[in-house]
Each structure stands twice: as structure tokens, then as C-alpha cells.
Amino acid sequence: MTNKPFVSIRKWIKWSDDPASENTDTLVLTTAAKYFVDIRIYLPTSYAEVSLPTSKPLPSSRLEWGFAGTAESTPARTSTEGKLEKPAHTKWTHWVDNKSAIGVEVQDEGDMFPDEGEQEEVIERGHMVNPATGKDTDYEECWVDLEPVLIDGKKEFRSWVLKTEAEGTRGMLARIGDWIQGVVRKGDETSVVRWRWEEVEKGIPGGWVTTAIIGALEVPGEAFEISQKLEVGAKCRGIDGLEWECVESFDWS
Asked: What is the tens place of the pLDDT at every residue in 31-42?
């Protein structure tokens, strides 16, 4: 594994000829081994709805999309003059998805173009089902990568992936630096959760703070241990009885 993990937020999406807009809070964790967890939560549309971040459980109607799986990428090709000849391309295979039954393979793919106006932004172009229309539609998305954050005085960044699978159940949980998020589908019910490490005043330990939750996802306590490293093959169990296995563990500096 030579790729470093990265955390991305979506700045906007543009469907076909429609203007660019953003009606979700979208965060994607992509690990060194190309596991990903992608959670998209609708922004509030009235003062009565809760804004993010929040530790309050949100209704399932706020979940626009929650999915996780593996990504496969091919790098961009440039000419000797540095001109882009072929964009980077990524295909995402959804192992668990709130919109598709377990066992139904879903894939989407897109080409990645650097934003000529913004060095830190990437434009993704492809086609997928527009949730507003239910039709396969060309799209553009603008993505911004977040800088990783060292937590609790550590000298290296940490990343890991946990998976769970049982009859009628699949789930994936990932950590990259100061973010953890996960998706679990049990039958027709999907739960998603997101945490972020929050530092406090000097001399007082920081901790993991829930920033979004929909449904019920009981995560093993080992996921929050910062003093011990999760090793590949390690197994742990949540209070709901689901057994999780570590399938990737990666540190970098």
C-alpha cells in the first residue's frame, strides 16, 4: 500500500444542465487499501430541523445516501508538456448501501479533473441515478480534501477499517485521523454514524464526539481506543452482538 488515506467533503453537485448546488453534508473516508465509507446527510430545510454537527439522532428521512465498499483507481496520464491527456478514473463498488439490498452489487464511476481555478479542489464527472428523478443522469461534483489531524499528542496519523457480516447484515466502519464513520444495514434498515476527535483545553484529555447519527449503530469500544493499535485480523464485538473484524490497519506520518 503506497497511497495515503484521505478525507473528502463535497462542495457542490451539478446534474446535467442544472446549476451547481449542495443540499447535503457529505463526507467520504478513503483508506490506503481503497476501502471507503461515504455518508451524505440532507441539510435542514427549516429552523425546526437539527443542523450538523449534532449528537442528537436524526430521522431516517435525513439520510440521502450511506454506502461503503472498495474503490479502484487508474492514474491520470499527461503529455511530456504536462498537458492532461487522460483523467484519473475511479470505480466504486458498494458492498453495503442503504439504497440497495444486501448482495446486490452496485457500482458507480467517474473521471477526476483538477479544478483549474482552485488548486485544492477536484471535479468528478460521471453519471449515476439522480435521487430527485430516479433517472441515470450526467453529473459533476466538486470535492475538497481535508488535512489530516494528529490527535492526543500522537506523532503518526492512524487509519483502520472494521467490517461486520452476518445473515441479513453488513457493515463497515473506518477511521482516518480525527474522523470515524460507519454504515450498517440490517435487512431493510440502515444506520450511519460519524464521530470527530475534539481537543479540549491543555491538560484535559480530548475525546470522540458524535457529529451525526441516524438509526442505531453500536460500535465496539475498541474503535475509540487511541492508546492501542487495532491490528489486521483482530475481532471485537458491540453491545448489539455484532462481531467486527479489522481488515486494514495503517499508520503514516
From this structure: 999 999 999 999
